[in-house]
Amino acid sequence: MDLSMSTRTEGDRTIVAVGGEIDVYTAPKLREQLIDLVGNGSYHIVVDLEGVEFLDSTGLGVLVGGLKRVRAHDGSLRLVCTQERILKIFRITGLTKVFPIHASVDEAVAAGD
Amino acid sequence: MPTVRLQISPTAAHVRTARLVATAVARRSGVADSALDEIRLAVGEACSRAVSLHQEFAPDELITLLLEDEGKFVVTVCDKGPLGAEGRFSDPTAGFPGLGAPEGLFTGSSDRMPPGFGLAVIGGLVDDGPGTVVRMTWPLGAQLA
After folding, report:
1. Chain A contact set for B16 (CB, 8 A)
2. What ipTM goes with this model?
């Protein structure tokens, strides 16, 4: 249903801008996208969540899965998010300790690994 | 009597249906705007859990949501999944005696039974069918801290 994704690259970083709702219904699309990227050799991924209106534990699971996949290639998965209601979910679940969360795509792209 | 009773087939798409209905009823019932996001997420999580249980164990059964607003806003999500099944989701190699392969019990490092084990015992003792009820409550009209 309401999930949009667009992908672009900046240097060796791949930015996935996600919009809409990431839930049990739409999360498989994001999972496929992340698997495709890693399969095609993109190991440094920035997931831009600024356009996301809803994120649940299924979506968190997909992001964790993406992180596991890039880590297997010494890569990175960074998030961009400033929305309090989305950040709250990462805090509740303790995943703020797992994901680097940035305030802008520029900041995430500039961050070293 | 529940204000609204909703039954959904166990499909991922209807988790969103349940979220939308619950949020709409909550708004109409006078729940503070600040709590609507929490209700949306909590109802979605409860229904996602019920849907995945049903898809595996009770694909032909409906999941029931009751939404009540007498004094406070109460959401009840009722599934018909087997009790204790979730222990197997978190560790698929460990089964419960009577529910799956017991070998997993001997391969883990802990001597504690998984969290759902006691529920599996209860499921073997009661007659009124399996299932779990998740009940969630929010105040009406009040601002959350």
Report:
1. 1, 21, 23, 25
2. 0.86
